[in-house]
Design goal:
Elements (H helix, E strand, L loop, with lengths): L2 H13 L1 H13 L5 H13 L5 H34 L7 H14 L3 H5 L6 H10 L4 H26 L3 H12 L3 H24 L1
C-alpha cells in the first residue's frame, strides 16, 4: 500500500468506527480519500472479528450520508461560484465540473444513487442537487438509499475476500474511476424507461 492508504487504514485499525465515520464523511464532501478502499478494508476487519459487520455497515452508511448532506447544503447555500473557487483544493477541474453540471441538468436526481459507485462523480451529484434546490426530502431518501447500497457492496466484498481485500479494492477504484461510459449508458437507459413510463401514464 502507498503511504496515504497505509495511514488511513491505520486510522480505521486504531479508531475503528469513529475513524471510518470521520474519513467517509470527509471523503463524501470531496476530500481525496479512497472511500471504496477504506470500506473494503473495514469489511476485512469484520472477517477477523475486530469490527462488527452490522455496526460497520451502519457507520459507513451514516458517514456517507452525512457527507452527502453536507455537500448538498453547501451547494444550496453557496452555489456554483463557491464550487469553482474550492475546486483546486478538492482535486476537481473545470472540465469535470462542466461535464457533471451538464449531466445533472439533463438527468437530475436519477444520478444520485448511481453516482455513489463512481469516484469523483458522487460529490458532484450532492453539490448540484443543492445548487438546483432539489427538494431535500427526495434528495435525502435517494442519498440514503445510495449510501446503504454502496456501503453494503464494498463492506461485503472485504468480508468475503478476506486477506485479498486490497486487490479488489484497487481494481474497483481503478475501473470505477474510469466508468464515465457506464454512467452514461445507465443514465440513458433510465431516461428511456422514464419516457416510456411517462407515455404509458398519459395513455391511461
Amino acid at each position: 500500500m502507498h503511504g496515504l492508504e497505509q495511514y488511513l487504514t491505520d486510522i480505521i485499525y486504531n479508531y475503528r468506527y469513529a475513524g471510518l465515520l470521520l474519513l467517509l464523511t470527509c471523503g463524501m464532501v470531496g476530500v481525496p480519500v479512497p472511500d471504496e478502499f477504506l470500506m473494503t478494508f473495514s469489511g476485512f476487519q469484520t472477517s477477523l472479528g475486530r469490527m462488527d459487520f452490522g455496526m460497520t455497515f451502519f457507520v459507513a452508511t451514516l458517514g456517507s450520508f452525512l457527507g452527502m448532506n453536507l455537500s448538498y447544503w453547501v451547494g444550496r447555500k453557496l452555489g456554483i461560484p463557491f464550487l469553482h473557487k474550492v475546486a483546486p483544493y478538492l482535486h476537481l477541474n473545470e472540465k469535470k465540473i462542466a461535464r457533471a453540471e451538464h449531466w445533472f441538468q439533463r438527468y437530475g436526481d436519477r444520478l444520485i444513487v448511481i453516482g455513489y459507485f463512481f469516484p469523483g462523480f458522487r460529490h458532484f451529484t450532492a453539490y448540484f442537487s443543492g445548487m438546483s434546490e432539489l427538494h431535500y426530502g427526495r434528495y435525502a431518501a435517494l442519498a440514503g438509499m445510495g449510501a446503504s447500497i454502496w456501503a453494503l457492496t464494498f463492506i461485503s466484498l472485504g468480508r468475503i475476500l478476506g486477506e485479498h481485500w486490497h486487490k479488489i479494492a484497487f481494481i474497483a477504484h481503478h475501473y470505477l474511476a474510469r466508468g464515465g461510459v457506464v454512467v452514461a449508458i445507465m443514465v440513458f437507459l433510465i431516461y428511456l424507461y422514464s419516457v416510456k413510463r411517462g407515455r404509458a401514464i398519459q395513455q391511461d
